[in-house]
Design brief:
Residues 185-460 form the Na+/H+ antiporter NhaC-like C-terminal domain. The chain is an all-alpha fold. Helix content is 78%, strand content 0%.
Length: 462
Amino acid sequence: MELSWTSLLPSLLAIVFAIVTRKVLLALIGGIILANILLFWPAPENIAYGTLNSTWDTLIDPSNMLVWFFTLGIGALFGVLENGGTFKEFVLKLEKKQWIENKRRARLMTWILGVVVFIESNVTIMISGTTSRPIYDRLGIAREKLAYIVDSTCAAICILIPLNAWGAFNLTLITNQGVEQPLLVFIQSIAFNFYAIFAVLLALFVALFDWNIGPMKAFEKNAVPDQVSKNTWGDGPDDEASFGKGTAVVMTSLISLVVMVPIILLVTGNGVLVDGNGTLSVFVAIYVALGIAVAGTLMTQPAGLADIGKYLLKGAWNILPLAVILWLSIALGGLTRDLGTGEFLAAALDGSVALWMLLPLIFVLSAITGFSIGSSWGTFAIMLPLAIPLAMTLGLPAAPFIAAAISGGIFGDHASPISDTTIIASMASGVEHIDHVRTQLPYALLAGLAATVAYAITGMLI
């Protein structure tokens, strides 16, 4: 279809409706219906068929099926760990050892976990979010602060340390554009990935100094320590050996979750990490960790198979609403690509502009695209084939242009209420999704503004 400004409307409807009403599911459904109206107007039967077909095709797509199952697997995993008692023992152990005895250390622990677990963004979010949440509750730190820190370190770290599926995906896109020495150029682009760098550093500053801006101030002010679970250690196991066993289950399960991803990436990539299947690797890692959690809970806790079954179902059920949101957001993202949203936005670059403006324009355009479709990977796929030929045509180094497109995608995805990482960060932290979006946005905009200035300066120097 002919590119038009109307291609922006489905995403704008979903974003505005979600923010105003807090009804994310209805917002996404409305966006999907409007997208099909734009695609198939004025044939009502085609609109109805397109709406059903686009959502059904997204649901049964083989790669997405892995996403649904590992999403439910994540819920089941932490359902077993939390309800089975081992996770409580792990948190109590941390506090009893006085490793995390104050708010600053709790925030720093979350940031460090986000940086260390760089294998996959959603795994990073789930590990750092669910591990930190009970500690934040005990110390009286707002869960919205937790959601911000985990969300600000997940995708940003995965793209800055791209020994994962993120690196493989972008390297493939860069190679397909005919770039000489694509791996070297991709590595060079990391130094110019200003939004990711600023987002991680800003999160570290917030963790160190508890800097609250915008709506975060109110949430932090209203956060109080959980007096009920403030604990007199009598609630924990009396047997130190048993206490250690429960903690070992959690540690073994979480470590396996991190270690198995690169192992499966190597296996599926025939010994080359960046050629591996990222989604399959995460799927296998989660279910290996789930198996360890189930076996460990049975061996160390007073729980039977029936109890484990309840924990599995409870955990999966708790995550199901967000899995549905994830499903609908992926469907909407596919429809916005069909409408040519990214291509229409890219056309804004067509014309005579000063060379120093190209990098900030690519960054801003990529950010708008990422915000609109709620997908950093979708934005990379749209923007890299536009940014790289532009640099090559002008005889300019490709690395800064690659970085601007990727960095903008991370920014847009970070700020978007329909992004999967934003949704999962809300889930892992146990906060209302729109509250997370509102409290995170001022920090994201600040890092985004700094990145825009940095790209303008870079554009003057290249």
